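Entry:
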Amino acid sequence: MDDPALFPPHLTPFAEAHARELTALRNAPALHWAILVPPAGFGSLPEHDEAYRLLPEPVPLQHATARLSHALYARAVADELTRPTVHNARAAVIPLP
């Protein structure tokens, strides 16, 4: 969030709220949760990209700024709901080349 070239300032309040949410989740051991985060280029790929991977934190800049379609992000979320692989953590959804 510190680099306005990578993170638009108008999104800072949204990101700060998510940071507080993450802290609250990490402090609630009775909950089972996962957060799937799209990269900065979310919504900038055609809807025909085919494969993704979930990348745990920390996410390298090249992946954090990748492009990802809404359809592929939705598939990742649906897959995680039906076959969970992320447990009490945050992971980035990254398209495979």
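The beta strands are 34-37, 41-42, 52-56, 67-68, 89-95.
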